[in-house]
Amino acid sequence: MKAPFYRVKVYRLNNEGKWDDRGTGHINVQYLESSDAVGIVVISEGHDANPLLVHGIHEKEIYHRQGEDTIITWNDADLGTELAISFEDTAGCDYIWSQISVVQQGYVNGERRPEKRQRGGPAVDEYESQLIPGMQGQGQQDGAAYGGASGIGASAISELPAPEMGNLEAIAKLMSEVSAFQRDRYVALLLRDRYLERLLCNFQQCEDLEDLPSLHNLFRIVKNTFLLNDTNLMEILFSEEHVTGVLGILEYDPDLPAKQNHREFLSQKVVFKEVVPIENQELRLRIHQTYRIGYVKDVILPRVLDDGTAGQLQSLMLFNFVEVITRIHQDPHYLDEYFRRFLSWDPSEPDWLDYLKFLQELCSHSRHLHPPQRARLLSKLARLGLFDIVTVAFKQDRAELRLSAADILISTLNHDAAMLRNFLAAQENHVLFTQIIDFIVNGDPSGVQTQLLDAMRVLLEVDTIDPNSQDRDAFLDLFYDQYVGKLVAAMGPAGKEAPKVGHVASEQAWLLSAVLDLLCFCVANHGYRIKYYILRNNVVEKVLRLTTRKEASLNLGAIRFFRTCLGVKDDFYNRYIMKHNLFEPILNLFISNGQRYNLINSAILELFVFILNNQIRNLIKHVIENYGEKIADITYVSTFQDMRNRYEALVDQERQQAGRPSAGRDQGRRPDGSEPAANAPAWAARRKRDARELDRDEENYFSTDDDDNDDASHGGNQENAPPAQTLEPSSDKANSGTGVTVVSDKGVVANGASTGSEVLGGLVDYGSDEDEKEASEANAQPARVDSREGILKDTSVPADKPQLNKGSANEKLANRIGGTVPEGHDVMSAATTDKEVAALT
Question: What's the pLDDT band for 381 if we cut at 50, 70, 90?
């Protein structure tokens, strides 16, 4: 029974959400031998009869009918997109839909291949050749015509022609027409009965006869054998027995005007060097095979290999690398003998480079090993003297030696930076560390600076260092004690002798930019070490000298470093910047740049936006108060105006805080004179401290009631006078220099300067709870502010009562400090400074 064929169009949904027309062809459902499943097959209606679609029917309900029941769509998981089949009529869509349903029902019933219940059944496509144009005369094999293993696209073949010279043209034609769905079938045929090996044996005869057409056919056969992308076939092609013949065949490329000489090159010009003789013959052959695979991939066939085949060849090389390195590592004597010879040789000898190249490749290819194996190998190399050899190589003048040594360092750092970090810290005189820094700062014609800068960044990455490790502190201390100064010295002097404007060579500019990046990395990651070094050595000033350079890269590097210092949000940096007016070179660069919207303009504006958004008050005040005139005319952006508005708001806020009668002893008390719970512990601690400090006479004095004070007002004992009520300074640092004079109705009593209350606190006893209760019963009136005079009046003491005089206070202060008060120092006078009083107490 012939299965019907229906004409359809195949569509595929692209990344833009549109349907791409993949072509028109004939559809049927048939068994796919390659995938051992039933699938939908669409063959192009052209003479080439190429497959447009091969899709294995899924057991899940992923298919949908749309339109007027003439379209079937589904989401293909393998392709990761939507596919659609559009039928000419409903009958074709009904038929294919029913076939899909039959196959899915077979999966539900547990049948492995329901389509093979009987030949010619509804789910079996006999696919006779006369039904498709251009396919007449092609036979059927195993119930799946046209397509070998997959049953589509070409005539099914059970055997290839005999591997003889007379059949080379036919074999080459068949091999050139293999589709992706036929590869498995052809691989099986080439491996059967050593077919490929017998085919390669024809090369010598063809070359002896100088049969050029046959040699060209052999080239096509071998090329398409590579494109089958099978590991077993490649093992045969690169085997020691056949590789010479394969290379000879590849010399006769019909697309090239002349014959190539690959065999001559590999046998005469390529020399295999052994730094230490390899006794294992199998290992030697594996090394040779690896080189030949790379030669074919990169030299002979790079223009014809697809990505899959090139990846397969690379995988073969990788597996060989792993095997070679593993065997070398497992050899109990090889590496020991290698290092013994290496360390005993003079670096000036020509073969010394070969020894270093071998070590470079060994370290580089170790990345293909599993992490435990790689760790054991690199640890053994380090123990045998790996970094000592690198140190010697860096001392040589030959650029290739230095580049190889730098590559070895990078290979070890990519695995474990601690190994190199420990060596640098423990090496005598730190020779290697000094070499690395010198190459970075001074440059080198070999071009190792880039590699060594990357190496230093990895070494200084604190996240990779165990915080509990002593080696961590040892390495960082060594770097900041001896080497960071060399990096900073590259910036030039920070004093006036530094050139105002200059032009450095492009190489030097690149070096300075790289060093700046490294310093930015240290600021962002190293915390206190780099902070104190910067503050002690004026590093920011030296860096900002680069803003006068003509190179934009250096200007941006200086801005980036300055921004990094601000970005850590450390008050140490902020105070340092304000003290040394370090915003000035930044603003000078901004103004000289003009209104050009370039990277310098954007970087500086972002810096000030950062300050504004993070509300760094002291920096906002510093910029406006010191550079307000410079930025007053910059109106094309609102950044500086917003900063000025913020500054004015801060000033108004501080003025309001300075005008409030606060910060005294009574601040925060309840109307009844009691203290809130939150304030009680602090005042209790104050009372406890004062009680310890006062002697018995002072306690008796401050315990005197108001009746005794009445006598003192008429010239009695002044020691019994109550203390004047004082106004303690505001906790706001901005108002610390503002004093409030406290007076009674008789005149000036004390000055409420920033620390005056702390000094007078030793002379004033706030009393015990009983004293406070007695004071409350005395109906003392609270202090009030005289709006006319702008001073605080004390209404709790009668106007006719005198205040504590300065002589009595000086005498008691002398008793407190165990000596005498120097002449001219008046603790009750507003002229006495805070520092002088603090020195006395």
Answer: very high
